[in-house]
């Protein structure tokens, strides 16, 4: 049997066709779990959901200010972007501030995750570069930190590089735990990813939301990054993407970020809460519906915010002929919440 | 908790990052379950996994022979193809035999499911047609049946159309059950899909594998369709796809077919068995690893067949920089099998 509760159901006609199990943790800044479903103690790779925590040293150190990073560039440092032309331009602009080109990026190249952007790029007769990698903004931020630290940028993705040491220390500070003994993997873009309990990840985003438990410089850095994301939500994801639309709709009520393999986090400043959830099977569609349900529960939205969350909690499934064939919806554990 | 056993694990470094739960049924032609995991009695939409059963009337009625359908065209009638140029050409050729064009297809248009084919199409400056729909071969077969039955083809996707009545009757005959009371949904391509227990789907493919329980004309039709798929496995799926490679490697030992939402089936003539499995969360990656493990267990392969199945049972996961970051592997329930 799978760990976790049934968080999301996929229907076809009147029947449930598929199910996504998973776990949810909501924590306050003191580390108290205010809501939990499933197993929130088991170590989980948070993947790209913690990019905003990994960007803390970029801001806290003064590196971003020294090189004049814009809100767009800071938002892109927290992003898993779709590789649309605006994202590529922002990444290229950030590197230009450092006097660097795309060849300095160590994230690898891949086709834009936006199908439309990938087809448009192919139609233009060229292939993707590392700028199109969904992590290019985060990597531009790492390079900015390396430049400010006046260390050799090459190898900045390796655990022992001064940049990754700073990034790991920031993660440890936010999570409130040492990662020295944590299970470690290599992320899609080459940097280390450390497994941490979902409860600790939620706690980290409660700290991020409030600054509580951080020193003043780190608390200010968290605020700067959230404001950048709210000012430029398109840079955090892209056209039609959950995180972009969430921050367009909810504005400064929520900082929201997905990660690969069904991870999703949120920082909710007005409540002082952090949210972390994981879909057991790694499905993004499940994580998005579950996050919408959790946000609706916690934020008690009205008007357009309620409408947007409702559209993401119950997602109509349309076939190739445009016929509605079913929906994604919260499972019993979340819909009863 | 999720129904089903953990069939597949996804690792990162030394840790398990994600898990796919599901159910497996293996049946003989008498309907005896020779192997089962999870819940094989719960109704499940078999989706495109039953295309070969839906193609039985096309062959059994003599329609395919009357219009001179080739092995490629029969294989495409059983296919969820990738929309590569060879698939599109085969679908167009089948329609041409009927004196019809792509506008007769009622499956809707979508970009090729092969990313490379989609980008190549975009680079050529045109968009997709219904010929690129992964179901275009099945729909060409439906149109062939309509022409042979001398009924108006339009509306051939509707449950009450003479073509769908024949198709549903063939399904009922293979499943050994009435679908009159079954949960019904609309499939991605517009035709009805009926939920049936996984055990009954496995039984249907044991009948398909052996002809037992079918009349002579239907048994011959099953053999014709399997031979067409073995003769033209590329048409059944496409470049790098599981079903194509499975039939290239295993040849006439297995007819293998995926369906949407994590369904996979196989017909194993030498053993007289049918296999049906469903990944609870709908993930194709999970269904493929689980099917490879089940085929390895049942077929006891050697040499190249063993090597291909091993490569599909333990699938290396590579990041954008080409670094191996983890693998897909059978979960405890299947690996102990």
**Total number of helices of chain A:** 15
- What is the strand content of chain A? 15-25%
Topology, number of strands of chain A: 12
CATH topology of chain A: Beta-lactamase
Most extensive contact: A-B, 59 and 59 residues
Envelope shape of chain A: globular
Q: What is the percent of helical residues of chain A?
A: 40-55%
- The end-to-end distance of chain A, rounded to whole angstroms, is 23 Å
**Do you know the CATH architecture of chain A?**
3-Layer(aba) Sandwich
> Over all CA atoms, what is the radius of gyration of chain A?
19 Å
Oligomer: homodimer
Features:
337 residues; Beta-lactamase; globular; Asparaginase_II (chains A, B); Asparaginase (chains A, B); homodimer; two-stranded antiparallel ribbon; 8-stranded antiparallel beta sheet
Describe the structure.
The structure is a homodimer. Chain A is α+β, with helices and mostly antiparallel strands and about 325 residues long. Chain A has a single domain, classed as Beta-lactamase, CATH 3.40.710. The first copy, chain A, contains 15 helices and 12 strands. Chain A has helices spanning about 50-55, 55-60, 65, 70-75, 85-95, 115-125, 135-150, 160-175, 200-210, 215-230, 235, 240-250, 285-300, 305-315, 330-335; strands spanning about 5-10, 15-30, 35, 45, 185, 190-195, 195, 255-260, 265-270, 275-280, 315-320, 325-330. In chain A, strands 1, 2, 3, 8, 9, 10, 11 and 12 form an 8-stranded antiparallel β-sheet that branches. In chain A, strands 4-7 form a two-stranded antiparallel ribbon. The radius of gyration of chain A is 19 Å and the shape is globular. The two termini of chain A are about 25 Å apart. Chains A, B: It comes from Methylopila turkensis. Chains A, B: InterPro entries: Asparaginase_II. Chains A, B: Pfam families: Asparaginase_II. Chains A, B: This is Asparaginase.
